[in-house]
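Name: Polyamine export protein
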Amino acid sequence: MSLPESLIVIALLIAASAFFSVAELSLAAARRLRLRQLADEGEPRAERVLAMQEQPGDYFTVVQVGLNAVAILGGIVGEGALSPYLSGLLALWLPEARAQTLGFLASFLVVTSLFILFADLIPKRIGMANPERMAVRVVGPMLVCMGLFRPLIWLYSRAADLVLRLSGLPAQRDERVTSEDILAMMDAGARSGVLAAREQQVIENLFELDNRSVVGSMTPRDRIAYFLRDDPDELIRARIANEPFSTYPVCERDIDHVVGYVDAKDLFQRALNNQPISLAEEGLVRKVLIVPDRLSLAEVLEQFRQVHEDFAVIVNEYSLVVGVVTLNDVMSTVMGDLVGPADEEQIVRRDEHSWLIDGTTPIDDVLHAVGLDELPHAEEYETLAGFLMVMLRRVPRRTDTVDWDGYRFEVLDVDSYRIDQVMVTRLAGAARLSGSAPARQEDQAAEVRS
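Structure predicted for Polyamine export protein:
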């Protein structure tokens, strides 16, 4: 074989090896969501790639057979094509034996370098740059190759399946998309600038609805504005003016005997038309949704959807009212500080190392704001006030403090046993507790100061 013919054969072998390299990496790196999008846009080859990803064994068998065959042929052809010429050139200055040895080594290095560069590195970078597009382009020729090498494919695939079964290793990759996968994608999108940081936070809040208790987003019992069934017109009008809300529970005798709720729009309509307001009037008081305080926000949303309501009364295991929740409360949890006026913020950052936090703030929000991973006895409370009560083992008083894991929680204001404001401060130079000895840590962490 002449030198030009050998060079042409080497070029063809490099092209074949590059094709198999692109085919291998593009199928492995192609994202199923993107392939599904291409299929929905009318790309028929995307469906074939999706089918290949479901059963990739035969596909990769063809790739490996092709790559290994090309590598062997490339070595044979390359050594025979370049070695004589390089040896003859080196023989002008070196002894014949040494010239042949160095010519062989030089031929080997040249051919190997060409294959590494043009048959491996560059094709794989092309395949990684746009794996879905490359996968749909090579799937047709790969199907032809799979048809040509069917006997070899069957033999090697069955042998590989047997080895995997005997070793207990998985034969297929897990294509299930988890919430962690989605959050990781959102985090990557935020870092690259495709997704705004606020939008990323909203998506993370959505995934946390299953883990957030309704108690963390409700209006607590002591802040509920309600009517009694027999309240007179004057009292109803005065309460509407002083405590404007969209919905009011209606009770018999006291707040723990809720019989329904009244929409503020119905009351306003009667007030504007100078009509008397009587909660005993038929049709004014609506049936109220009652939910237990152990539900998550996701479960409350589902109940809202089922009964077509956006207001619910929350009761504990003793059937006592602990709060009320609206659809707007849930959406405020999802949207975070994108909604609501600034004076309703529960967490205010004072400086780099301190936060002023309302006692009713959900503990998950506190952890996220100050950068803590967890707090002790997390199953026993839902709010920052609950954490302080559990740690102090009594109702906190003003100036009480709790130190935990390098942070100090100081009670600034208490109103009728209700914790209004807590100052959380990151202690300078404080050692972070490891969490390996809970009982010892709790003894060290909780400190009461009056």
